[in-house]
Fold each of these.
Amino acid sequence: MKLAYWPGCVSRGFTTELHGSMALVAEGLGIELVTLDRANCCGAGVIAEHNQELADTLNARTFALAQETGLAMMNICSTCQGAQSECQERLDANAEYRKHINEALSGEGLEYVAGKDGFTNKNFLWLLVEDIGLDTLRDKVTRPLEGLRVGPFYGCYVLRPKDRLGYEDFPERDIYLEKVIDALGGTVVDYDGSRKCCGFPIITMNRETSLTQAGTHIGDAIDRGADCLVTPCPLCHLNLDLQQPEAAKAVNRDLGLAVLHLPQLVGLAMGFEPAELGMPRHIASTDAVVERLAATTA
Amino acid sequence: MADYTLRVRRQKPEADDRGPAGPYWEDFEVDLDPTLSVLDGLLQAKDRQDGSLAVRCSCRAAICGSCGVKVNGQSTLACKTQLGEASEAANRLNGGSEPIVVEPMENMPVIKDLVTDMESTHWKKMRRVTPWLLDDGNPPERERVVPHENMVDITQPISCIQCGACVSACLSMEADPDFIGPAALAKAYRFVGDPRDVETDERLYDLAQDPHGIYDCTHCFSCITACPKGVDPMNQIMRLRRAAGEAEIVDKNNGHNHEVAFTKIIEKKGTLDESLLLQESLAPGIVGKMKPAGVKGLLESLPTAIRGIKSGKMRSISKLIPGIHPKLPGDAQDKVEKIYERAEKSRWQLNLYITGRDEDLTEAEEAPEQEEAKA
């Protein structure tokens, strides 16, 4: 499988362990990634808040670059998925608008064509379940995550709103993390915050609300006996992991729960070592996860 | 007809001989057609099993907005949710015969069973945004004529039926009960977008400066999913932010600074320079770094940065020094800048709620022909 790959900004910024682990896991799964190195930031909803047409044009540019490769597009960030899907919805809905946007791309010789050769833009989670398949994934598992209790944390932008995010065709997209954890041999931890907001978008605007959200969800998962969380969104990771000590202060309790990126969890089950997957770079220690796996492997 | 179990989170307002005050669960078996609503189920249970089951309702047709509840965790109207689909949703993850879970709305006190106190939350927040027209005080001889496109622009927030489902679903309010919230802020846009209102800038300034105002929304789409009338409250909050930005209202919550810094970084670099975004959101420019609020913001983020450097997350020159993040390769950055130039002038706001989609329009155009064919 060969894919046009948009890694996003944060996976190459404050969460490089995500970018690195995705590269390893892709190779292990037999996926060839063609990086869209000329593509730009999705705007994360912030540029759309400033100027909707600007965000739509920037993302049309990314889609056009992907379409140039003739490949389906993959991203590894719930926020990219949400922001890009929002723009794509408007571009696909109105031919006159699309023509107007494409005029801005013509100087670069680019054009976004709605539905060209069944063009899709999917994050790694959707791709894993829908295109690679859970059976193939199970075959790749060499170190089942037996005994590891994993809390799923989706990130809002792959959950809502459903009509924009393809739930009509794929109604189970909001339970894929549970399916993946199960396929990898782990135990799903059901807790209150799995489909709630991490609070990250307002970390510079209302720090207390933001960190209270992160801290509450981490605390809920700990109370339900989770060894770690797993998320397909690096922005959620920033609030849940990078800010975890601050989140602990906001909710006035001890936390200390490892938060894995989705490719890291998949990578562990495929036999990659925690260090290769960049886990020592996390702020919340991943030692408990490593110990749990060592105990079951021994 | 089919059998359904409704698992209702009830609430006893005061202790009685059956037990103390507080919440408890009770199952009700109902026998109804799958196309009938959860409200029909609740009313059958009340009618046949326990007349003391409290639920607020009136029209039963998603018009009055009285029967806001949570069904399987989703805030919605009981009358707009069919039993069949609710049962399917309940069984999706675990399979088998899971009950339909019905709970009172969140983010507001429960009075009894499924009846919540809308006054202390929803209506109080609604009054906070001055939900009436503030005109120039000079009534014209006849009616005020408003351009059609202006009224179309606010059609969406006007559709609100005050059911509170979005308030119940709001994830920011869960963490910050003082957040003005989706319903009231959507209502605020209804007047900000109305050309007859003369206090537009004052409204925007007020809602931007309030720490629990427009910049307290995390953009989580939860209210959009909950709203039974397509008001898309979060989109109205984003329009308030856009309008505040256009009015160049610089708020003390860093909302405007964050938006400006983010947008500018992508124009100049193509991808996000996170260190620069943090610095410029909290303390923009040289002046911002000399202000007490800017210094406080930067100091607050310092421990996080130090931890990031220690763990190796931020251990590279471009992450440590804001502003030296690389541009896109070749001429790609120039192309992005050209896009900015054009879009900042044009600023087309396409609202699919109003325009519909091409395929919907085609269907609408084709419909009369089909009618003719039938005739």
Amino acid sequence: MKKILCLMLTVFFCLGLVACGETKEVAKKSRGNGGVGFTDLTSDNSQNSSPADSNTASKTEEKTTSKTVSSTTSEKPKTSAPTSKPETAKKSDKIDFDISNFNFTMAFSQISEMKQNKSKYLGKRIKVKGIFEGEEAPSRNYYYCIVKDTTACCSEVLEFVLRDTSLTYPKDYPKSQSEIVVDGIFHSYKEGTDEFFELTDAVISK
Amino acid sequence: MATIFETLKLYFTYPFVRYALIVGVLIALCSSLLGVTLVLKRFSFIGDGLSHVAFGGMAIASVLKFTNDMPLTLTVTVISAILLLMSSKNAKIKGDAAIAMVSVGSLAIGYLLLNIFSPSGNLSGDVCSTLFGSTSILTLTKTEVYLCAVLSVIVVAVFVLLYNRIFAVTFDEDFSNATGINANLYNFAIAIIIAVIIVLAMNLVGSLLISALVIFPSLSAMRLFKSFKSVTVCSAVLSVLCSLLGILISIVFGTPVGSTIVAADIIAFLVCYIIGLLVGGKKI
């Protein structure tokens, strides 16, 4: 009986290890299906996040409506023109990383990974689903896509700047706390000593 | 089922998923090895106590704005482990009372410091993530993975090399001393190893659920086997399997990682308990 049990446990363990497939082949196939593809673990993964970037590398960073901006920061004016309908995604917009269909756990983790290893993702078009939140500030408005983890106690925040700059907030933007799917070019910028991440040339598809 | 496998195949392309699986397996292995010793020495709740001490250490490191909280957390936890496990038999505050005192004291002081000095804008999120693990295991950096791997290898190596001594010290310290084994020295080593494992395991299941990683595999194995070696091996296998299963279920279905691993441990314990009853011929 003991030997049978040991054998069964060993078999289950081996089955668990067998589940790990060829990463390169899977990555190629997933790219072909328009899904997400990532470089293999053995490839050059340069980590640019330094310990000093504690705000950005923080796993539980959340921006609330009271975002602090350095007083020495120069203004970044965003002109608001008369309203127009939200621009839909162009057919030519190729999505490099689509995490809009991920569950909370994976989406949160992936965004955290993107911020930690930003060099792999900067300049790529990312599609993400989250909760919309907008903030009006003296220098510029900020629009956020908030992705919470499964326990809802932690969240990752991605700012986005819509492609159509003629839209005004809050009239032409989704309602606060509504679910949105947005895609844009992953980009980072600094305000003072803090680094933030945003999706530029963004389009809301939901 | 096919969809689940396809999803898993896709998720395995992500480096952070592979990191989580590697670290999860190593931590589960290390905690289960020491878990047998702790359960037999009636120190099952030491994991909970030390994890709260580690939380207090992390809070102090956060308040002092250390870039890396691991050295301070590890130091504080090791010192506490030594004090708790090596307290003399004539100590006025013994065993469970000492653990409880240190545990709740560290948790309260840690949370108080975080509240007063508030190093980040999301205090509740930081605390929740530390206490329950949340997605900490899925947001590891490569450096943290290497560190976990090195520490885990050291722990396993020490356990394998000192297996006979640990066995002797676990069952009868007086006999060990009488036969020339320095029980205090090995208790000291066990205390340090446990502290290291606790600090590593906080990334996997969080502070509040660490005890499950230590206790459940050992207790499950004890339902099936009687010898120390068999229980240790079975405990390790069960712990690794449950950890793997918990992480995979968590990423596929979007459940909290720590809680899912503990749920898998509980199910494994129930299965082993039933098998033990059936094999032993005992009635419920």
Amino acid sequence: MNQAPTNPLALIAELTHRCPLHCVYCSNPLELQSRSNELSTETWFRVFQEAANLGVLQADFTGGEPLARTDIVDLVRAARAAGLYVNLITSGLPLEESKLAALVAAGLDHIQLSFQGAREEISNEISGAKSHAQKLRVLEWVKQHRIALTLNFVIHRRNIDQLEEMVALTETSSATRIEFANVQYYGWAFANRENLLPTRQQLDRSMAIIKREQERLEGRIRVEYVVPDYYAKYPKPCMGGWGRKLMLITPSGEALPCHAAQVISGLSFENVKARRLRDIWERSAAFQKFRGEDWMQEPCKTCDRREQDFGGCRCQAFLLAGDATATDPVCSLAPLRPKVDAILAAVNPASVSAGAGLAPPAAELLTRPSWLYRPNPT
Amino acid sequence: MTLELSSRPHLAPGCRLGENNQQRILQMPERALRLNGPSLEIVTRCDGKHTVQQIVSELQQIYSKAQPQKVEEDILGYLALLQKERALDFIPASATEA
């Protein structure tokens, strides 16, 4: 019923769920895999080779904290040898300078270092760990070893007013890219949503700052901004469309079309231990499920934008509408958009209707929320 | 951003030439560009040795049927685009050869 897929471009290798941080918006599922379930070094080697054969260009090593794997240098070397561009997404916490040198020698192409803020206090609050000072040390090592660097700041209500400080921090580093990624509401972030969603006023201000900084830094640092889609008019083309561009492998070897896909009930996922990557990509039921347009409901089915955003995010549809085939409720055309508007109204008390755009932040914003922290699996 | 004709472009950290299914590509953090014909000719010369002027001259010879002025404009536009993407750095003429 679906057209033959093109090949995937990126492989997201979730090497482990173990992590020294406990970020309140972690994209890992609520049910974390333990170390004993993790794929072996040899299986990952095979997966990298199969991915390259399938046409994948880039491997994103992530987790959890990928450096928690003791074989990380071997994994980088193998992925690079298979012909992949190797990107390490890390908190920088378990890193030492000698380890960085070994990773660079093994062929690591790029590091994406995550920051929880520009200031020690908020960073440690969000990550539930003392993490900020170590990240600053890592910035110096990265500069010494001349490896390409992106700084990634996850943005939310508690730090969105500090974008300028984050840019200033980036300018002291050797980074050529900054990613300001507003939290997307899945997993742990979904559980902490009411304390993470920025206000509309905060968002508007942030957009103006980003535009100004993009112009100022053009040619030196690329500034990318991902807005929270609850505030968008149309949904994001999640992962570039279901089963169109990306493949994610969980620590235990399950192949998913995206980080959150396991929340959708009724889907079962194939494991790379049992099936070849090409087979999974081309034929597995989970990857076929939302390819093409046959599954779509109205208004998506006849919408002019359906080839642009593919109806939005299936996981978000499931989380908010209880139906993975529904139009993503963040879409202004979605029948369930009022549900998203109600969520936004709760974090934008009266200010919109009263036109009180310059009102000071509510006292609640200044006090520390009771976060649900993500634990570290054994 | 103006490009100095005497500067020498080279690939920025994290950017390298690759190949996939016989297609040459420029790999960068989070993205990849397909390179064909002129774009491949340009990028392979971004080696920190060729000046922008030399790249222009060499491509004007390769594409001798095209208008030289048009070739130059296209090259400068493409280099500016790659710089904006942060795929290129430029060594100024005043610097000693890297």
